[in-house]
Structures are given as structure tokens and as C-alpha cells.
Design brief:
With about 150 residues, the protein is an all-beta fold. About 0% of the residues lie in helices and about 50% in strands.
């Protein structure tokens, strides 16, 4: 029997570059191991992240919601459950995300330029955007897109 090929899981990483400008790039989680969560559970693919304290918030962004330019309060995973939203970074990149998509918000320590600091975000379409936000108690990185490989 051949060994199964580990999967990858894509996500958008919003990060701060060395000049203090927020950017975003599509990355992939790729450190999956085929193992059970305990000895009595069938194996599954797991990509275990570094342990840290975390806070979970369920969020519903209403139709027409716009979060003016701001930084993520701390590094946080954002998983879209329903609806759509956009994130625009200081470099001018705008990405729309919908159900099942994942983002790492790590744009702390940006430097204001032309009235922009961090990112702009808002809902897209005619339904609210629901998400689960998992804030991590980790030190933000600078200029390390895809650090969660």
C-alpha cells in the first residue's frame, strides 16, 4: 500500500513588510501528519500549530459594514462561515473571501501612509458575513509571509 500524499490547505496571509506596509499573499499550510487525536481514534490529517493562549470570537458583519483602515488587534485566524467580505491592504491588493476560506491577520506595526494604516475590510453582497475569529497570544512577525507553513 502506498503512503498517502499529505494535503495542503490554502489561506490568505495579511502581514506587515519591513517598510511597515501591509500586504497579503496566498499561502498554504503543509505540515500535515496522518495520526489519530488519541490511540482509539482513526487517523486523520492534522497540521498542529504552535501552542498558545487563544481567544475565540464568533462575528457577524452586517450588510454594508465597512471597517475603516485599522490593524488586526493581534495575530488571528479568520474562517469565513457564510457570506462574503473583502480585505484591502496598503499595497492596493484587494481580496474577496467567502465560505470555507481562511485568513491569517497579522498586520500589526504598520506605518501610516496616505491616511492608510493596516487594512480596510467590509462585507460584499446582500447578506451578512459570519466568521469565527481565533486570536492568538503570539508575537507578530514582520516580513514573514506564510510563516504558518
Amino acid at each position: 500500500m502506498s503512503k498517502p500524499t499529505p494535503p495542503t490547505m490554502s489561506y490568505w496571509h495579511v502581514y506587515t513588510d519591513k517598510e511597515g506596509v501591509s500586504r497579503q499573499v496566498k499561502c498554504a499550510l503543509s505540515a500535515f501528519k496522518f495520526e489519530g487525536v488519541d490511540p482509539h481514534t482513526a487517523p486523520q490529517w492534522n497540521d498542529k500549530q504552535e501552542k498558545s493562549q487563544a481567544g475565540v470570537t464568533f462575528t457577524v458583519l452586517p450588510v454594508g459594514w465597512v471597517g475603516e483602515w485599522h490593524e488586526n488587534p493581534r495575530p488571528q485566524w479568520i474562517a469565513i462561515l457564510s457570506g462574503r467580505w473583502f480585505v484591502e491592504t496598503m499595497d492596493g491588493t484587494r481580496v474577496e473571501m467567502g465560505p470555507g476560506e481562511l485568513m491569517m491577520g497579522e498586520d500589526q506595526s504598520t506605518k501610516e501612509r496616505d491616511g492608510k494604516k493596516g487594512h480596510l475590510s467590509g462585507t460584499v453582497g446582500d447578506e451578512p458575513c459570519t466568521m469565527i475569529v481565533t486570536g492568538l497570544d503570539v508575537t507578530p512577525t514582520i516580513d514573514q509571509p506564510g510563516r504558518f507553513k
